[in-house]
Specification:
- The protein has nine helices and two strands; from the N terminus they run E-H-H-H-H-H-H-H-H-H-E.
- It is mostly helical.
- A two-stranded parallel ribbon has the order 1-2.
- Helix 4 packs antiparallel against helix 9.
- It is globular, with a radius of gyration of 16 Å.
């Protein structure tokens, strides 16, 4: 963890490297944010990064969404995703729970073309599964916007973990 003040004086490359995992496998976001320094607060840094995503093309946003792993899936993912899913109990699913998550993830992916995204910190596996069961009935437009909103929430939590205020 470093302070926002120290992060401000790092080179653009160091800034980008340090924040490259805040948005899953998407270093283009902190790379663009580096040009807007200095940031007086962590929330202003976060909003700058959110604005960068919001200005991106629909294709770029979809690419960002698709960088996220399916919840409960046993695939390679970033350290942050592993820690977040473990904290929600998704790394300790029973065989039946795992099959239920796989099935629902597949239905969701087949319907929307991108993974179900939820900021899982502070939630348990039952809350997550219930959210999946509810959101699978949404429209693609609503889920696209919800996925981006959840990504922004995940990014804020990750920033708060990385940067001491």
């Amino acid at each position: 963890m470093i302070t926002l003040e120290i992060l401000q004086v790092k080179s653009n490359e160091e800034f980008t490297d340090f924040l490259s995992d805040v948005f899953e496998h998407s270093p283009w976001i902190p790379e663009q944010a580096a040009a807007s320094r200095p940031f007086s607060t962590l929330l202003i840094l976060h909003q700058c990064m959110v604005d960068i995503v919001n200005r991106a093309s629909t294709e770029k946003k979809l690419e960002l969404i698709r960088k996220h792993p399916n919840l409960g899936d046993k695939v390679e993912m970033t350290d942050d995703s592993i820690k977040e899913q473990r904290g929600a109990g998704l790394k300790d699913l029973t065989a039946l729970e795992y099959e239920n998550f796989l099935s629902l993830n597949k239905r969701y992916m087949d319907k929307f073309g991108f993974p179900f995204i939820l900021a899982v910190r502070g939630k348990d596996k039952n809350e997550i599964y219930e959210a999946m069961q509810t959101r699978i009935h949404h429209t693609e437009k609503d889920e696209f916007e919800t996925a981006l909103s959840e990504i922004h929430r995940i990014a804020l939590l990750r920033l708060q973990e990385k940067i001491k205020c």
